[in-house]
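Field reference: sequence -> structure
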Amino acid sequence: MSVRRLAKEQPASFAFSKDSQAKADWWKAKYPAARKQSAVIPMLWLAQKQEGWISEPAIQEIAKQLEMPVIRVLEVATFYVMFQLQPVGRVAFVQLCGTTPCQLRGALDLKQVLKDKIGDANHVSADGKFSWEEVECLGACCNAPMAAINDYYYEDLTPESLAQILDDFAAGKDPKPGSYEGRVSSEPKGAIHTLTDPKLYDGSYAKKIKIPNLPEKPKATKAKPEPTA
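Structure field:
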């Protein structure tokens, strides 16, 4: 894992919005007063959902509210890769899976689309709307190649479909997540070719089979009473 550091350029301050603060207070109230530091991860997430990324002032504010050292909050933020320590695109932040199954299914072609439309990885586009990065396995190998865009998975992508998704985001639309080949969940692509024999499901294979040379189970006998003195 590469070293994760805070962005060089930081905002002057951070404050939770009224709605975010109410949610943060709800999380803090879930724990005993002496254990409210347990709310550090959801509060970091709330800060990220509000601003798009985690800034140093946000870390300081969370540390203040939870009465814990700033370094402890920084440790959490830098450990979990779901927390973005650099600004990301306001409209679409693309996390492209580059692990082997997705590469075999065309992830390198998708990477070129992102370079052509957005620019280099880990940099925000000039208009501030888009950014992308390559990540490790996102756990949707059956629907490779895929990418996480903002909060959702976009699967079974082609260069053409990914380009259209980016164009739709740029036009203010809300592209539908999921498979772009019409698959539901992780069902096989095209027709089902395995486990199609009806006998597997009608009970035909569930008949009792007698195994030869298997000793019979001894019959239970009633225990004799212990002799009395």
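Note: Residues 18-29 form the longest helix (12 residues).
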